[in-house]
Design a protein that fits this description.
Elements (H helix, E strand, L loop, with lengths): L9 H5 L9 H10 L3 E3 L4 E3 L7 E7 L1 E6 L4 E5 L17 E5 L3 E7 H11 L19 H11 L10 H10 L6 H8 L3 H11 L13 H8 L1 H13 L8 H26 L6 H10 L4 H8 L3 H4 L2 H22 L4 H9 L13 H12 L16 H5 L7 H10 L1 H12 L1
């Protein structure tokens, strides 16, 4: 890490959109994590159509943008348009090449979305859980419902190592060596990343045998998502003999959905497969506080019918509370809220919730849940993804052909 002399000033952030919408605390955090960088002429800063998890702002110098339609335009750091992110409306919209030496800043897109959400009214506001008549006698529901409404419900914390890795990867001043030092605090996690770097999904020409090389091959964003995914396994644990089987079933389902999400996203343009895997893992995260809560009440935990009803009613909003506490961005919060809303169709463009919806439906094939859910091709998500160009039979054939990929993704998650 450098000495901080090139940190961006609050005045620079206030001149840029949407950074000027940040709260005071959000701006303060961003100032501490954003450094002014330089690039010489003739360098490609952004590649059209690529998946880039940084948002760039041009401060000084001149760049050329080539849009997806083939048009070209020149942008100066002094132009009014430079107050918006490079490649606006989205990072993969244009290829950006430096025409002169430039100064710029880049901000982690996940971090920015979280900070913006803290400073303004989010479209995913928590809703009041309705105490339906049929749940009036449900002791599990009533206990958790009253704690939820009084904001005293105990939520699980994100594993410390995941928090630390997220923080160091969101700061562009940190080198791979800095990230590797943090990862190596956890020897088991280090071994998992090396294993992943050598797996068929990411394998290169040479065998990887150390943490730094593994992170170099994977990249910081993939490393961050993988660390988050691997660390979550520890959250799906309980000391209760009554609930141990239930928790194991939850992890089994979540990891299966995560693996299928990984494969579906890899075959759908514009999606990050590792982020989709993380979305699949957390789609049922709202079940954890419910199970943890009844752990102290074996007589409640043993009543599976009551517990199922309470989970169904509480899971979406409690899940969104957990992910907000963990500072996940709104697209993943939406997954927790809407991952079983089969008819959801908020936009013409597919999102990670659509991926997880389809992954769930595929995971239910051959199980009793299959008869409780809609047909694949009756769900809006099916038609928004590339699967919409196929029949349900061909959709299933894709996953059948990708069986090894699903198995590999499961192996990565389960160790």
């Amino acid at each position: 890490m450098n000495d901080g002399k090139n940190l961006v000033s609050p005045e620079v952030l206030e001149a840029l959109s949407p950074l000027n919408e940040l709260s005071y605390e959000g701006q303060k955090e961003l100032v501490a994590k954003t450094v002014i960088e330089e690039q010489p002429a003739g360098r490609t800063l952004i590649t059209k159509g690529g998946v880039d998890h940084w948002i760039y702002f041009l401060l000084r110098g001149e760049v050329e943008l080539t849009t997806s339609e083939g048009g070209k335009e020149t942008l100066l750091g002094s132009d009014e348009q430079a107050k918006l992110p490079l490649g606006h409306p989205h990072p993969g919209y244009a290829t950006v090449v430096t025409k002169t030496a430039i100064q710029f800043i880049r901000i982690d897109s996940d971090l920015l979305e979280v900070l913006l959400g803290e400073g303004q009214q989010d479209s995913l506001e928590l809703e009041e859980i309705q105490a339906q008549d049929e749940l009036a006698e449900n002791q599990v529901f009533n206990q958790i419902y009253h704690e939820y409404m009084s904001d005293s419900l105990i939520l699980p914390g994100m594993p410390d190592i995941a928090i630390r890795v997220r923080e160091v990867t969101q700061d562009p001043r940190n080198s791979i060596d800095v990230v590797a030092k943090v990862v190596q605090i956890d020897p088991a996690l280090t071994a998992r990343l090396i294993q992943v770097a050598n797996s068929p999904i990411y394998r290169g020409h040479a065998q990887i045998d150390n943490c730094r090389a593994a992170i170099t091959r994977l990249g910081l964003h993939i490393t961050r998502n993988l660390v988050m995914s691997f660390s979550l396994h520890n959250v799906f644990r309980t000391q209760s003999s009554v609930l141990k089987k239930r928790m194991a079933e939850l992890w089994e389902h979540s990891s299966q959905v995560a693996a299928i999400s990984f494969v579906l996203a890899g075959r759908s343009p514009g999606f990050d497969a590792n982020r989709a895997m993380l979305a699949g893992l957390v789609h049922d995260i709202g079940v954890l506080p419910v199970l943890s809560h009844v752990e102290a009440f074996p007589e409640l935990a043993s009543n599976r019918e009551d517990l199922d009803k309470a989970i169904e009613a509480l899971r979406p909003q409690v899940g969104s509370m957990v992910l907000r506490k963990w500072r996940f961005s709104s697209d993943l919060v939406r997954v927790a809220l809407e991952a079983e809303d089969w008819d959801r169709d908020p936009d013409t463009q597919p999102d990670y919730c659509d991926i997880v919806l389809m992954a769930q439906l595929h995971s239910f094939i051959g199980t009793p849940r299959m008869h409780e859910c809609p047909c694949l091709n009756s769900v809006p998500a099916f038609h928004k993804l590339l699967l919409g160009e196929l029949s349900p039979r061909l959709s299933l054939a894709i996953l059948d052909e990708a069986g090894e990929d699903v198995a590999e993704a499961l192996q990565l998650l389960r160790g």
